[in-house]
Amino acid sequence: MMANSPADILADLEKAVATCPPDRCGRILSGMVQLLTGSRDQSRELLANVIDGVLLRLTERVEASALVRLSTALAELTVAPPETLRRLALHDDPDVACPVLLKSQALSAADLEAVADGCGERHRRAIAARSDIAPAVTEALIRHGGPICLDLIRNPGTQFSEAAYAALIARADQDGEIAKALALRPGTPDPVVRKLLSASPGRKAPATPNPSSASPAQDAEPAPPKQPCRADYASARPEIVALNRIGKLNDSTVNRFAIRGETANLFTALSVLSGAPLEIVEHVMADDDCEGLVMACRASRLNWQTTLAILSNRSGARLSYAQRERAQLIFETLLLSTSQWTVRWGEIAASANTSDPGNRRAKMGASR
Hints:
The protein has 24 helices and no strands. It has helices at 6-17, 22-37, 41-59, 64-74, 82-89, 94-103, 109-118, 121-128, 135-142, 148-154, 162-172, 176-184, 190-198, 216-220, 230-245, 251-260, 263-274, 278-286, 291-299, 304-313, 321-333, 336-344, 347-353, 357-367. It is elongated.
């Protein structure tokens, strides 16, 4: 007795779908998914195209729970029924759409753009969490704004075009979190970070600048923060000590000082947290080599994101990508005890203590 061919079986299934009850449609759907997922790679593409029409019919007759299971199964396939996949991705119910939006490699960039422009927030958040996001899809998601921008920036798999960077820079003018996240992202190009820092809160140019006083170099680089004087330190210290006493002199607070260019607060906070005198903090801040500043941040028990914000916002030339990688390697390999000893009593302290003895005595009075 000869077995029916796959084509004959599929023809019978399509006829049956038109009249069978929903529960039986669910069983047929489950069987077809098993057929598709169990096929060999060389025949999967042909089989996916053959059964696509039947699956589309079945998706109209089954309950949402069956569609969720179908979406979850198809999301794992590198080759999947294209029209069925698109219907699931565009489904109004996020529980149905999100599995394929999050994982399916069979969805094209055009499919994902259509979902980004035509569906809801949960659909877009699922796309923003994919392991790889094409530049055109990134642009489509950014157009909708909101928390999705931060999701994209924090996802290492997001690919940004020049247009996407420009859109984020424009949004960063009103949202400091976007500016901070994009500046701290390892892959952000240096020109983009310079633009972000020049427009950061507390670092913006006056509303009506004098055109004759501005130069291209000033537009490209953020203005160096003003070096604090003794009066600045005296004013900042009571608040910093009070914040430290109640446990609020933390990464979030220090990060804000760095982003806003509040140098007196920042230097004083590093001094209080690390136990190093202010002249040592000033010394490592001014040093061309970032190693001393990384040690001071590590001695202050700050995390890497805050350390990078401090490195990116100090005066002088900004870190290149290679320098940022080196700084992170130093940070991750330093012991807390070693960092604390070095900035308080080791080579960094000795270097700072011999640089300007007269100035050191004045600053020591402010650090007490």
